[in-house]
Amino acid sequence: MTPSPTDPIRVLIVDDHHVVRLGLRSLLSHTGGFRVVGEAVSVADSVRMAAQLTPDVVLMDIRLPDGSGVDACRRIKQENADIRVVMLTSYSDEEAIVGSVMAGASGYLLKQADAERLTQAIRDAASGASTLDPRATGALLSQFRDLSAKQAEAELAGLTDRERRMLALIAEGYTNRAIGEVLHLSEKTVRNHVSQLLRKLGFQRRSQAAAWAGERRLELPPE
């Protein structure tokens, strides 16, 4: 539940370093508009305290003595989807970033972030918005581009080389006759192959197959 604009944002701090917790508590106390309701030093503590205290936002470190903050985030969100989790960490590796997003985190900030950016990220999370550190955004986009490429390859894995060539030509706007000239097939044979290809891909129209192949940037395989 989003806190009222007049109520302070209730924050649970999760970090196993006392100095970090002390600094965050001091920052939020002096900024105004926030109330630190608790501090946790482990995955187990964070999950238990989140259930007991129901904070608006959890500030979560990635690496904790008994496990990963990503796992803690996932467990907290499973217990109460209304609690927002902002990952605050020194690590910007792709696995941690993607894992955090998939676990339901509303934000991912590096500890080098300045006070204004951190407090705004907490406000954004409390209101239902998301925040990503610019350095984390690049890593996340790179990961999803790689994932999209792998998914596209998996979708095409069931096609024969001839079907891939035919699909690439369809995407380029070739007619059945033109495809036949390239592949040295009769127009009737091409028509039959195209019909089979559409059925295999689950499409009813040629234009659907062309758009699908275009989205995946399918290129004409070598003979």
Could you describe the 3D structure shown?
With 223 residues, the protein is an alpha/beta fold. It folds into 2 domains: 9-143, Rossmann fold (3-Layer(aba) Sandwich); 158-215, Arc Repressor Mutant, subunit A. It contains 10 helices and 8 strands. It has a 6-stranded parallel β-sheet with strand order 2-1-3-6-7-8, with helices on both faces. α1 links the parallel β1 and β2. α2 runs parallel beside α3 (69-79). The model has no long low-confidence stretch (mean pLDDT 85).
Strand percentage:
5-15%
Summed over residues and divided by their number, the pLDDT gives a mean of: 85
Give the strand order, joined by hyphens, for the main sheet: 2-1-3-6-7-8
**What's the helix-strand series?**
EHEHEEEHEHEHEHHHHH
Q: Percent helix among the residues? A: 55-70%
